[in-house]
Amino acid sequence: MIATIVGTGLIGGSLAISLKEKGVANWILGVDQLEANLQKAQELKIIDEGASLKDAMQRSKLIVLAIPVDALLQILPTILDNAGPEHVIMDVGSTKEKILQLVAGHPNRGRFVAAHPMAGTEYSGPEAAIKNLFTHKTMVLCDVKNSDEDALEVVENMVDKLQMRLVYMNGVEHDLHTAYVSHISHITSFALALTVLEKEKEQGRIFELASGGFESTVRLAKSSPDMWVPIFKHNRNNVLDVLDEHIHQLQQMRQLLDSEDYETFYKLIQKSNKIRKILK
Amino acid sequence: MIATIVGTGLIGGSLAISLKEKGVANWILGVDQLEANLQKAQELKIIDEGASLKDAMQRSKLIVLAIPVDALLQILPTILDNAGPEHVIMDVGSTKEKILQLVAGHPNRGRFVAAHPMAGTEYSGPEAAIKNLFTHKTMVLCDVKNSDEDALEVVENMVDKLQMRLVYMNGVEHDLHTAYVSHISHITSFALALTVLEKEKEQGRIFELASGGFESTVRLAKSSPDMWVPIFKHNRNNVLDVLDEHIHQLQQMRQLLDSEDYETFYKLIQKSNKIRKILK
């Protein structure tokens, strides 16, 4: 199968590597707004060939859209306009409700499979693409009842070959749960970096004192605003809701520390420790 | 040299392993309130022998106190009372000001070296002890002018053999900078876990959707309240100060999202990205 990756960055590039390695595709076309990305992706042997979107759609069966969710909103309707029964169009966006609403009534809606692999790193661009990024991670497929059976089968087969765990949700559920489990983590990490940069005027101290713990909580703050602002925009209501809860939890901890109620503070930490059981 | 580790948990146990491996000590005595910890530490060959504190002080030169900072406050004066010119007493506590104040006028103050290795994991107990925990990490030594030269030399030599980066500070600076770089990370992580546990009533979803990013920001929330409540208590003023800044940053992000000012939101994320340059 010939597959096209639109957006040859971290996710698109890593997927290209895996599709080839796991035998899902034997030739990968890359499409990217940035000529430099295409060149880099080819140099790194992530893609076999750069192409225009038009050319890529003529030549390939599977088209994966690995671009920021705002760009996805702009491009997806046109791609579906030009899709035929031979095409499978899949996205990998971090929000789903707006995208699914947008294409809900499209005559070629069935060729589209809405997907979100729960995997990534804080880096971006083709250089950030890595092998096995998706192995043993979760792939969420949304509103699959609106995808044609054969298109869904192509994607499910890929998920299987990539050794991913498959989860089905509707778009509304997806955006709610990812706000809780993924989007809020990024907000806290961005805010933590801003906090430390604001308070720690002696920046050399940050480098000296940063242990694994600090690096781990702050690493998502290296993530690209080009990717994340559109996500927060699309999922604004859910993010605001979980952010309110998070600010409330911090205020509660602040109040307990201020009033020196260490007993309740202890119990709160114990309660937070329950995350141990859930994560493994 | 015979060394004693008081508190054979994550830090004490890992240090015991390194002292032996790097040739700093050839025999390790373990002292622990919990008999089970001692047995486990011996079984895992982390220590050579369990001992009482009294016995251990008679037999060893270097005594490392790797216990929670509240327990340290209680035990350190007695240990100094019984220390002779042959002893070097070192702690590894995460706060310093209160401890240094406590022993400031002690006649044997010179035998004490206040140390804080910027290393750890979210786990605790002897089973959590690991090799090379300290390699290439920072060791902060505080108020060294109040330690006897020969005692300081023993510790500096250890730091060198452990291939650690050495940083000197006074206790007040130490507590300020660690509040910014280490303690606040733990607060944000505990609060994030509480947020997610509060919002995500379908706990299975957390496990399914948790990617590396979520795991990394929330992992410190597995940390023990026995260790952390005393730290927050000792460093209350600095922690409250940085926590206020953190809540302020989150409120600012919340306000920008609420008013849909995505341009300023974008700039804030870009600003937080500066952490990239500082961390490497």
UniProtKB/TrEMBL annotation, chains A, B:
Its EC number is 1.3.1.12. GO terms for molecular function: prephenate dehydrogenase (NAD+) activity. InterPro entries: 6-PGluconate_DH-like_C_sf, NAD(P)-bd_dom_sf, PDH_C, PDH_N, Preph/Arog_dehydrog, Prephen_DH. It holds the Pfam family PDH_C. It comes from the Bacteria. The keyword Transport does not apply. Keywords: Oxidoreductase. Residues 1-280 form the Prephenate/arogenate dehydrogenase domain. NCBIfam families: PRK08507.1. This is Prephenate dehydrogenase. The lineage of its organism: Bacteria, Pseudomonadati, Bacteroidota, Chitinophagia, Chitinophagales.
